[in-house]
From TrEMBL:
InterPro entries named among the record's database cross-references: 6-blade_b-propeller_TolB-like, YqgU_beta-prop
Origin superkingdom: Bacteria
UniProt cross-references to Gene3D superfamilies, sorted A to Z: TolB, C-terminal domain
Protein name as it appears in the record: YqgU-like 6-bladed beta-propeller domain-containing protein
Lineage, uppermost ranks: Bacteria, Bacillati, Bacillota, Bacilli, Bacillales
Amino acid sequence: MILLALFLVGCEQNEIENTEEKNPLVVDEEVLSVKTLKTSEENLRFVAGWLDDMNIAYVDHHDAEDRLQVFNLKTGGIHTIYTDASIISEVLIHRSKKQLLVKTSDTSTEANMTVIDTEGRVLDELTVDSSELEIQWNDAEASKLLISAFREDWSYQVFLYDMSEKSLEPIELTDPFPQWMGEDQLVYLEDTTIVKESLQTSERSELVTEVNRFHASSEQLVVEIPDEEQTRFTVLDANGEEKHSWQAEHPSETMEDVEFTDDDNIIMSTNLSSDDQDGMSTMVQVIDGEAIKRYDPEVEGGLLNCSPDGGTCLVGYRMDTLIDLETGGTTQWLQLNEVEPVIETAEAITEE
């Protein structure tokens, strides 16, 4: 009986220790075990973002090819959906999570864009003469792209590409970094003024002045406005009407990245550039247009990518850290070391 009791106690202790070694992730109020993706700095290109609430897309290099892969946080399964002999320099995931844009380049003066579905089937291809591209995908209409093509002297041309029409049309803008607002309207900076312009009618209107930077979605935008003492952040609707405003907590706090989870909720990362916190990032959540919840994930870099359900975000320069927005807890899902990357499994994207 004594030996049996000691055996049971030992089993219970092992079970507790094994549980503590797993990374917790809260999804739909259930605590799930998060698998860790282990690869090396040499093989990993970058993390692209969420495909759904459990699968993350990333790019690595293997056997002279770049691979667009999907990692399942629950099962640890890896599924390759696209490969290319050229270097994959960027992957955009459309807000619908049904299409991905893969950018590659064979020369320094040309860029290739390939649009695929989540199974890797090619939907469209386009080549643009450019030494550097900035691409904005329309959240409301997946067939439309804004493409800013830069030349070596940093002169530029902005194009509207319509996949359904296979048309590439130049647009004359004073700002090379326009953003979409709805299906056919653009917002961009002229000096420090945000201008909204219709692609159909060319009608222009000024939304707000004295702006440092901004992020836009289909129906709203977040702007950073300098103040006498500390920066002010403001959420505006599509007509420029203020929905919510708050002051930065730190004098050096500036907007880094923004996720619009829905019409009334946003997640924003900010950068702290003071001497004692240089490069560190903080996060602000605006809920129902009013409540503000702050997080300090203690990671460097303000990149931000949130799951479709808006409950979990990837943060950090590498987006290697998960943060649960309900609890503020963080866990590292991506581990970079000098070991061989995990062996690819035959599993496709595993659904809950």
